[in-house]
Amino acid sequence: xxxxxSIDLEEIIKISKEITDDGAVCNRCxxxxxxxxxxxxGNEERGRRIKEILLDYxxxxxxxxxxxxxxxxxxxxxxxxxxxxxxxxxxDLDKWVRRCVNISEDYGYDTFLVGTHISGLLHETEEYxxxxxxxxxxxxxxxxxxREVGKRVGEITGKDVDFVKPDLLxxxxxxxxxxxxxxxxxxxxxxxxxxxxxxxxxxWPCRACGGIGCPVCNYTGKKYQESVEELIGKHAxxxxxxxxxxxxxxxxxxxxxxxxxxxxxxxxxxxNPKKRLSDLAEIEQDINKYERDKIxxxxxxxxxxxxxxxxxxLKVDKIYKCDxxxxxIVNKEDIIKVIxxxxxxxxxxxxxxxxxxxxxxxxxxxxxxxxxxxxxSGDSVTLEISxxxxxxVKELITGDSGRTVPNLSDLLGVTATVRSLDVISFNH
Length: 428
Fold this sequence. Notes:
This protein is an alpha+beta fold.
């Protein structure tokens, strides 16, 4: 032992005796109580060396006591007895290695990490050991398992350990005697256009059954049979052999609103993918070929989880095309005068009646930059409206019984109805 070690021979013998007094101890459990000794040699070799030191000590002691040798270290090198600390767990790590390799055979991945859940008994035993010996340089059994299993899995598979964002996380559940894996999702960024109305952005469970399936939804579990998420997701799932998708949009348009112009940004999360590499250009082409009458996607690329938070935080100005009908003919000059007065104003919008069931009843202030008349036919008009993100455009027109102030209906003195609404520019 080097003279600069932070633990001396006397302390090694003292702690080792206290450990072995309670029964047989495997090399790894003994070695991990002295992780600062002899450099990076591994706990198996470290424990073996410590046992040799302890055996030499007892040989000297026995020669002074008429050949008597302490039974507490009976056959410590032969390994004939089960370790009282780990219960033999650390002598059977190859079993866990094989399970990790086998369970990951169907997955494509480059990096991995191993995590371990131990039983309460193992944890209590370790706490008792540390309290009893007062060992100062220890390593937990979980750290030993994670490192050793990870090292062997890497040697067999040729994959690398990644402590930050592994593709696969092996979870060794010792009490349940099983291995499970958590697969890092794949994230795909893109923009979508929606060319038809009455398709929601995400899957919409049937309200009658909560998505289980019932006569109301024809046992599909869905209120609407298609969504932007599903139209895009089915092609991505096929390519990446994924289990399911989660759709994260930069806001959402109403079901009856088309999304045109440059499209709305989104991130598609692919859950439990078995493949991690695929041709995104081909996926984009397939979506635009087979779903062309309903949606179109562009700018498809790989993304990461952080982009979801960015998209959700966006407050983006938009431009809408709005077809409006009136309950009577309105003079064109009056309309121009009113919409000119509304350009540059700040609305006070109380949560619309139509969404009160899912949103808090609050008053929000939203900016209207510009309203232009693009078509006029007496009792109907087409307007182009530029406004801040989060503006309830329908209520800007109808007033929603005074919940949006000011509004076009009140200023014109008519009942205005939105016949159709399209997003024609998403300024991001």
